[in-house]
Amino acid sequence: MKKINLVKLCYVFLAAAAVLAVISVVVYYDTASFIANAGKTEAEVISLIPTEDSEDGKKYYAEFKFTDDQGNTVKGKTRNPYGKDIFKPGDKVEIYFEKGVPLNFMVNTFDEKWLWLMITVVFTIALLLSAGMCILTKLLCSAFDKVMSILNRANP
Fold it and tell me: CB-based contacts of 56: which residues, under 8 Å, 6+ apart?
């Protein structure tokens, strides 16, 4: 049976955590920058569009109508599908839109703004905890080996 090299495994976990931490920072700054520079307005849900890959029809893109900062009426749909109960035609929601490119918009909900950040942060923490467990396991194995060698010398 091949022995697992805990030190290498720890480095893999730490490297993956570092990559995810960088992605988390980029996602945070992109989202925060978008919100800081975006126009903000009220949009109306005009329809729900079923996703093509949702055979049971439980996921929908919400289509919105709103007026941008230039006074133009804009129609667009969400980037991510939602459950049918999240939005209903006629609902009014707050959105952020990119000035000059109003079709680039974001609904003012937690998951539209911060879900991907939370996912990357949770996985970063999990990888850091895994690296910590590798280190702890390595230390405990080393201590156990030392104790066993002392006991073997004391009891020949």
Answer: none
What is the pTM (predicted TM-score) of this model? Answer: 0.74
Q: Measured between alpha carbons, how far is residue 20 from residues 25, 85, 130, 149 in Å?
A: 9, 32, 14, 41
Residue type, 82: Y
By CB neighbour count within 10 A (0-12 exposed, 13-18 middle, 19+ buried), where does 31 fall?
middle
Contact 92, 41 (CB under 8 A): no
In sequence order, what DSSP letters do the residues of 4-62 get, joined into one string? Answer: P-HHHHHHHHHHHHHHHHHHHHHHHHHHHHHHHHSEEEEEEEEEEEE-TT-TTS-EEEE
- The pLDDT value recorded for residue 31 is 93
The answer to whether 31 and 98 have CB atoms below 8 angstroms apart is no
